[in-house]
Amino acid sequence: MAGEQLALTVLMGLLLVLVAAVLTRLEDWRSYTPLAGGAGAAGEVGHAHEEKPGGITRWLTTVDHKDIGMLYGTYAIIAFAVGGIMAFLIRLQLISPDGAIIGNQFYNAILTSHGITMLFLFGTPIIAAFANYFVPLLIGADDMAFPRINAIAFWLLPPGALLIWGGFFTAPLGIGIDAAQTSWTMYTPLSVEQANPGVDLMLLGLHLTGVSATMGAINFIATIFTERGDDVTWANLDIFSWTILTQSALILFAFPLLGSAIVMLLLDRNLATTFYAVEGGGSMLWQHLFWFFGHPEVYILVLPPMGIVSLVIPKFSGRKLFGFKFIVYSTLAIGVLSFGVWAHHMFTTGMDPRLRASFMAVSIAIAIPSAVKTFNWITTMWNGRLRLTTPMLFCIGFVSNFIIGGVTGVFLASVPIDQILHDTYYVVGHFHYIVMGAIGFAAFAGLYYWFPIFTGKMYQRTLAKWHFWLSMIGTNLTFFAMLALGYLGMPRRYATYAFDGAIAPLAQITLYHQLASVGAVILLVGQLIFVWNFVNSWLEGPATASADPWNLKETDQFTKEFDWYERKLETAIADGGDDDDTLVADGGESVDE
Amino acid sequence: MSPQTFDRETWLDLTVNIVPLGIMAFFFAAFIVVQPWGFDSVLSAVQFSLIGVPLVLLAIVTYYTGRAIFNAEHAE
Fold first, then answer.
1. Could you report the per-residue pLDDT of A126-185, keeping only the tens digit for each?
2. Where are the domains of chain A?
3. Residue A189, preceding peptide bond in cis (omega within 30° of 0)
4. Hey, what CATH topology would domain A62-544 get?
5. For the purposes of burial, counting CB atoms within 10 Å of the CB of B22, is it exposed (0-12), middle (13-18) or buried (19 or more)?
6. What is the ipTM of this complex?
7. Which residues of A touch B (CB under 8 A)?
8. Which of B12, B16, B61 to mutate to test the interface with A (most CBs of A within 10 A)?
9. Strand, helix or coil for residue A593
10. Chain B hits for A346, Cβ within 8 Å
């Protein structure tokens, strides 16, 4: 039996090698070479990329930061689709109190996987996508400090995803490996005692994504510290790079701790150690370790999106960012304080009230830098010359959703309120306003804002606005209904809620669940439009004629990444043999230079 | 961190972090004055460190970032 399995494994391996070999021979693989002229035109890179391979070999072997950024982006969007479909199934299930479509076990599996997918396979990678592509351009670097480590960091992610989702693939085979049902927090003793090897696969996958994030973080810190152009100082470093720098520092301290905690969990599960057993550290140990990582993770996910919003809002407000340094300092404040608030996730565990009080104090303090940013964004827009382009709409949506998500969070920081609302849908509503309403929206703002740079095309504006409005309405319907459900006492994570009507108003709860599900349908339609628009515009859209699609020169906000793009367009045109008159690539308008 | 270290503008920028520092300092002092759960040498030490350590770290990070930006501005 073991021999047969071994033979099968070897055979599968050979097949994969064969497939890879065939694919490398496909020369007409849809690809482009963004570095074909741009960097060379600036005289920055004189040595590389002349013989950049074509086809899929290029994508498998690339160490170019922009290519790796594209890989991260593709990966993140696929993960977003997977996690989104899981979320949609969750919402369909909860249309009726008895559960509408799936069994409880499968519900638990997709609930677990939805959380992990969105946070680790979409959130962190989509930020890495923007950071990889744009940080070197924004700071005037040739590439990342360690291009090969950059590639390795990405290539750890696909096996990570396969392991995390592994249980879903193996469950139909009936070999006893099912998808993990631990919830994304993997609380012990549940996660220790579930015999399912799918949990081990998930933990190993999570470990890989953590190693990937840590490698990426080291690379970004080294890049921003050592690879900045001569004209980029700490005083004029752009806001997105500041947030990436802070985020990378958080990753450096948070993710290795998660890795260690996961290794201990694996040991407890497989080698009978007692790290989290009652006679050992106890289940509270896991919660402390997990949340010491888990809360900074929230800021790991939200700081760069805040950077994107801080970068984009001024561009469409016709003025500079109000209080640039306020935002820099408050980003750092969030970074430091994020490590001092972890136990506000554990207020109801029965920990000593003195410790609880301290965590409450720091949790309240961390609200200030977040609020400062919000006021800065609003003040930047105040009396500005607003242009409601799609990226700007997503930024405004971000601010609006972030206010609701943030204010509901301040309430949860207060111990007595948290004790009532803990583990209810109020918490789910609160953090989804942040992760979808804010982080997701900022990701879309970034994708639309930089779309012309990384595709050379322009998206379809009407479809993009449909995407925004459906996302905005869907987000607020779904997650506001969750806040109401929380007030009604609906506990989170349950696959069904057919409880006694005397305990809670079942009819009302059912109604709010249905409203949340309607919101999910609206969200789904919006995202389908996004995917269609994104793919269709990329493949079929006309090439952008101008390097300044947002008229940034008008307000003197033509930043370095568009500068790079302009050089790229100019050299591309010059290659065709056309000279001077084509150099004015912004549509012929005169520019003060 | 003498007043000469930074100019008035930089101090104004730094207020953004002085506010959370102030909130934490307030709670630190309040928990010294009011101790509804009594004093325990270990738990109270942890309690005050949980506020004190982030407070000191934030002050240090703010100071050094302020210095880096201030120096970069004045080197231009």
1. 999 999 999 999 999 999 999 999 999 999 999 999 999 999 999 999 899 999 999 999
2. 62-544
3. yes
4. Cytochrome C Oxidase; Chain A (1.20.210)
5. middle
6. 0.91
7. 233-236, 323, 325-326, 328-330, 332-333, 335-337, 339-340, 352-355, 357-359, 361-362, 364-366, 368-369, 372
8. B16
9. coil
10. none
